[in-house]
Amino acid sequence: MSHVKAGGTAKNIHDSPGQRLGVKLYGGQKVKTGMVIVRQVGMTKRAGAGTFLSRNFTIHAAKDGVVKYQTRKVRTFSGRSVPRVEVVVE
Fold this sequence. Notes:
single chain, 90 residues, mainly beta, CATH 2.40.50.100, four-stranded antiparallel β-sheet, 8 strands
């Protein structure tokens, strides 16, 4: 017979590193083709002219230029218009 009571199981022992999400290049900064501008989960920011969206919603530069952030109205599924940030390379 055991001389120690059952300890149970630990549920919070698994830890994973952070995903390093966020804005990598800010407005006014120079960018080259293919560089990462924003890493995000979902479309919190939209890809505008001069940029493209990859499979994991990362926004990359499609051409050389300068990064610019601007707001624009986007229609949601319900039909409501909401302001969203759009990333543009000029």
